[in-house]
Structures are given as structure tokens and as C-alpha cells.
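Intended use. Records like the one below are meant for learning the mapping from a protein sequence to its folded structure. Do not use them to infer anything beyond what is encoded.
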Amino acid sequence: MNTPLTALVRPPTATFLRALSRQEKRAPIDFRLTLRQHRYYVETLISLGVKVEMLEPLDAFPDSTFIEDNVIVLDSVALLTSMSEPSRRGETLHLKAALERHRQVEMLEPPVFVDGGDVLQVNSTIFIGQSTRTNPLAVEAIAKFTDRPVVPVAVNGALHLKSAVGCLTGELLLIDPERVDPAPFKNHSCIEVARGESNAANCLTINGTVLMPRDYPKTRALVEQRGLEVRAMPVSEFEKADGGLTCLSVLIPSRS
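Structure written out for the chain above:
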């Protein structure tokens, strides 16, 4: 039986054209296409039984459509993150009221720095990426709010942990071992992305359906060989800003 899910999403605004990117020679973002891709994302979540709450766009924060980075949703509490990137500081407070309808809300404060994209939760464990956006203090801070083990993971060359590792089902992961230390995942089943398809690792499973970014057919085939249903999603414009499928929503399971 599927757990009812609510997704908080925030539409991009025209300032998304100035979103952060580590890609020196990226193609310009097509804003009209960005809006179409975001709308399709929302429609897909709804078609899979997710209740979507659309929040107000934030012109002052170009990266605010990547709402996942603002919060870590645990079983009984939501932790508003403390973001290291100066242009993104202030985003999290715009999410507080919406979160309070679903969870008790706590705030992480400097010197703890963490983006939600560095937090990968599986059934047994919470993995915390050690990236340019998330520091070691985040591991101890998050551990105070959960009984699950909280494990640091070295991130090498990816913006966030979930840029390089995604949870397909339960303990089955999709991983690019060239961009993240695979050692912490030794007790988990892993599918390695196909060569040249690293972005495929940023996947999202909703009620048994795996959403994967389009244009990575070899990795999609590897996932489908495990008997999983895959739906390919267009996210090209978000990838230009180092984002992906998980970045575009905050998923909140209903509490039993």
C-alpha cells in the first residue's frame, strides 16, 4: 500500500536565467521550456497520486525552484537548512509556513551548513554528502533528530550527493561511483549508471514508478532490467543549473 505523499513545489521565475551553475560553457536557459518542463513535472506527480501544493514563486531567489535544498523532512520534524551559498540564504524562511502544516519545524543554524540535495534517506540510513555546500557539522546536527544512523559520504565532482546517488526502491540505489565514494553504500544493492550518463543518478521514485531524466537510455535499460517501471522526464533546462528531478519538490509522507 502506498503512503500518501504531499509535494511542495515552487515554480521558477524569469530570474532563473541567472541561476547558479558550475558549467562554464553551458547553453543559455530557455525559460519558456523551463516552465513547460516544470508544469510536466507537476502533472506527473499528480498522475502518480501525489497531492501537490504550489507555493509562490520567489523573484529574489533565482535558484528557489530547487526547493529540496531548503529542508530535510524526517519522520516527525522538518529541518530548515542553513545554506552556505550567499545568494540562497533567506530562501528557507519562505518555506516555513507551508511546512508547519505538516511537521514540527526546527531550524539549523551556522556554523552548520547543509543543502537538502546532500541528504539521501533510505529505509535504514540517512546519508549526508560532504560537498562544497554541506559541512561535517551537518552530520552531528541531523543525528540529533533521528534514530537512524547518519553516515557521511564524500562527494567528488558532483554538486550534491543526490546528483550522484538516487534511491530506486527500499535499499536499491542508482549510483555514479566516479563522483561519490561508494564505500558507505557497501551494504546496499547498487546499479551503476552507464558511462557518460552520470546525471541519470538523480532519480525519484513515486509510488513504485521511477522518474528518470530523459536522454539516458542505457541507464534506463539497466533499471528496467530490475523489473522497475520507469518514466522518462524532460529536465534539460534544470540540468543547465546543476539541478534535477529530486531538486524540484519537497516530498512529505503522511504521518501514520
